[in-house]
Amino acid sequence: MASAAETPAGLVKRSAGTVTLLRAGLSQTAQAGVAVRTGDTLRTGPDGAVGITLSDDTLLTAGPNSELVITAYAYNPTTQEGNLLASLWRGTLSMVTGLIGKKAPEQVKVRTRTVVLGVRGTEFIVDAGEGTK
Length: 133
Hints:
Blueprint: E1 8-16, E2 19-23, E3 26-29, E4 35-37, E5 41-44, E6 49-54, E7 59-62, E8 67-76, E9 81-96, H1 99-103, E10 108-111, E11 116-118, E12 123-129
Parallel strand pairs: 9-10
Antiparallel strand pairs: 1-4, 1-6, 2-3, 2-5, 5-8, 6-7, 7-9, 8-9, 9-12, 10-11
């Protein structure tokens, strides 16, 4: 059986400018069609932006100079249950929740350097500012 880290959480749907995916100490350009897994880090440059669609149809869009980690993600398409924890260490993130957020909004969270946001709506934007963890 594949582990959660081996099973894709979703796919890069859109990539513009400089976008790098870091996985297990290796980096690659995050082009459209690249699989995104739990534990992956996506970094955008000053000209970069990336759009990701997760398997529950959650849409994540990171703007320029962002660092986004898919910290935890699990989704069962049969029961439509799961959880999502995304960590935004810098930059901006726009999110439109998918089936997890619609069925159990308390299971969707976004963490920044200073707070953990619980989702109670379906669409929001987070600005984590500049800096490092």
